[in-house]
Amino acid sequence: MFLRRSCKAATRLMSLKLERRLMFSERLLLRLHLLVCAPCRQCDRQFTLMHQMSQHYVRRKIQPPRFEPDDDDNDLPH
Ligand SMILES: [Zn+2]
Hints:
Blueprint: H1 2-5, H2 7-19, H3 24-36, H4 38-62
Helix pairs in contact: 2-3, 2-4, 3-4
The protein binds zinc ion.
Zinc ion (ZN) binds next to helix 2 and helix 4.
């Protein structure tokens, strides 16, 4: 069956969808493949999870550090 043999193409689409919005035909191919292929469904979930985790990590790294108000102003010259 064609859909079963296209795991490599499906994996490429899973990776692409994390970088850009897939075209309608690409989304359709991927969805059809994921309907019939349990290993690729698992792979898709893992890709998505890894992407979310990396985005979370990048956001935390980019945000400027928070400075909490400090009662001790002794560091400032008066
Ligand atoms: Zn597959």
